[in-house]
Write a structure and sequence with these properties.
two-stranded parallel sheet; rod-shaped
Amino acid sequence: MGGGPQRYLYPKEVWSPTGGPWAYPRNWKVNTAIGFCGMMLVHYTIYRLTAHKEERQAPAMAIPWRPSLKVKDEE
């Protein structure tokens, strides 16, 4: 009685890329942390590159949190 569904029998020779039923790798937390840090590094690098190349024709208003924003002089 109770306790959720019981694990049912399944053939052991069945393979799936996700690990099959009840996949629970031992170091999933470490793998998740490494993947998350890798994604954050890529996102931060892309952000820094695009922010460095960003130019505006005329500032609409002062942006206090972006003092490094370059304003292109009109020629």
